[in-house]
Design goal:
This protein has about 375 residues and is of the alpha+beta class. It is built from eleven helices and nine strands. The two termini are about 40 Å apart.
Length: about 375
């Protein structure tokens, strides 16, 4: 829980170059006009399928651009029989297919802003991600294409005139490899992204009422302090009418060294409150009786260092021997009198001072109930 979902191969926009690859390969075996018609047909059928398929729509922008380019070449071939020499056909397709991604990349900011605006419309929640993926795909193709053009330029400068073998490699073999490499590099990028994000923990962004409105990487939530509200679970341990408190770790980013409750943790994205508090309890006090854990109240806490929606739980322990743990260095059971003697002296954490009166009332009520 709290992990990033796996990024689908649907976001590999370079797959949209497949109709071009098909046309280039087929032109080695059949007439180039027929090769274009087949590539165009594959592009049109794929575009229609992608557009009409059920579920959330991810715009296959590169596929649509590639299909449009092939369609223009198809129309051109109907009116002109010598529009492209056969020997240069693969290279011509490469240049033609690079033009739309070049336009997208040069106007990437405006392009991304437009598709981001579309995400607020019904069934268009993936338009922004699709636009980002298209820009990444365009960048990869432009880099590989630039290397190809650089190789051609160096070959012409160093070995002019070019041999037939060199021409065949540069203008017929490498063009489909440019698109295949683009697909492979983008797929590897998706694989690497998924591998990195597999161990990345997310926390929810919530309103003061607890409604989830987004998510953030846990490390960002800590560093961004009070820009948005994150839910935090805190567990107060009580035993025999006393509270178990200990100093916050020196490595803590918030109020380090101040005395506080035993357990505190962010609620993870996708995790229920019950799952979150059980996770915290099993990590800190695995032998504690889960049935003695009770939800107390929820409140909003904000200062210049943090912005939290806190869910406070109390854990009642009849046997306090499980608190004798070397991990709880500096921890001890405090009476209410001892706590009140140190309140408002910058000794306890800000959260605990906000919670104290409510906790005290809860513990007193439970102790009286036990007497009866």
């Amino acid at each position: 829980m709290g992990k990033q979902r796996v990024l689908s191969s649907k976001f590999n926009m370079s797959l949209g170059y497949i109709p071009v690859i098909i046309s280039i390969i087929l032109c080695e075996f059949i007439i180039q006009d027929i090769a274009i018609y087949i590539g165009t047909g594959v592009g049109l059928l794929s575009s229609i399928y992608m557009w009409r398929r059920k579920g959330s729509h991810i715009p296959q922008i590169i596929l649509y651009c590639t299909t449009g380019m092939l369609l223009l070449l198809t129309i051109t071939s109907l009116f002109s029989t010598d529009y492209c020499p056969k020997a240069m056909f693969p290279f011509t397709l490469e240049i033609s297919a690079i033009i739309p991604p070049l336009i997208i990349f040069l106007n990437r900011r405006r392009f991304l802003n437009y598709h981001t605006a579309q995400t607020h419309k019904c069934c268009k929640q993936f338009f922004a991600q699709g636009a980002e993926a298209a820009i990444v795909s365009a960048r990869v193709l432009l880099l590989i294409g630039f290397l190809h053009f650089l190789i051609i330029s160096l070959a012409i400068l160093l070995s002019h005139p070019l041999s037939d073998t060199m021409r065949h490699v540069l203008f017929r073999v490498i063009p489909p490899c440019v698109f295949i490499l683009s697909i492979l590099f983008n797929q590897f990028g998706i694989y690497y992204f998924n591998k990195v994000m597999k161990h990345t923990v997310f926390v929810p962004i919530v309103t003061k009422k607890g409604d989830v409105i987004g998510k953030a990487i846990a490390s960002e939530a800590i560093n961004r302090k009070n820009e948005y509200i994150n839910p935090v679970i805190r567990v107060t341990v009580a035993s025999h009418g006393m509270l178990f408190l200990l100093p916050r770790p020196q490595c803590s980013l918030l109020e380090k060294g101040k005395t506080d409750v035993l357990m505190e943790s962010y609620l993870l994205y996708g995790e229920t409150l019950e799952q979150g508090v059980e996770r915290i309890l099993l990590r800190t006090l695995p032998t504690a009786p889960l049935q003695n854990l009770h939800f107390s109240f929820m409140y909003h806490f904000e200062n210049e260092s943090t912005n939290r929606l806190i869910y406070l739980f109390t854990l009642d322990l009849d046997d306090d021997s499980i608190l004798c743990n070397k991990k709880f260095k500096g921890g001890k059971l405090w009476t209410f009198q001892q706590i009140e003697h140190n309140l408002h002296r910058n000794f306890f954490s800000g959260c605990f001072e906000c919670e104290y009166e409510h906790i005290k009332e809860i513990i007193y009520t439970r102790e009286k109930y036990k007497e009866f």
